[in-house]
Amino acid sequence: MNQEQVLRVIPDIEYDELVTILNISRDMSVPQQEQFLMLYQRRRKSRQELLLLSLLGFVGVAGIHRLIIGDIALGIVYLLTGGLCLIGTIVDIININALTTRYNAKQAYEAAALVAAAFNQPRNF
To answer: Rounded to whole angstroms, what are the CA distances from 97 to 28, 47, 116?
Structure first.
């Protein structure tokens, strides 16, 4: 898989994310890479999507972005406390790149593990 193929499937991919995807899929066969890309594309979140969800905290619905990325407990705390009195929401907006990168990297490794299991080739990450 090369950069062009990844960019064709995921046009709004960030550079760090692209490097992670290329490193993960380096040792996969072509059918595995295609399966991995399709699975990863469905699981990943864009930075703009998470930013918009976190901005909902300013209109009274804080924590939706945390629920979406799997931080269920913190999302519920944000919902009940108004984004910890908006301080948590502001901190999350500042750190939205790190939140998105961490979530997408986790999803990439999980997608790679699923593809490896589907092709009966266990991998250690």
So the answer is: 28, 7, 28
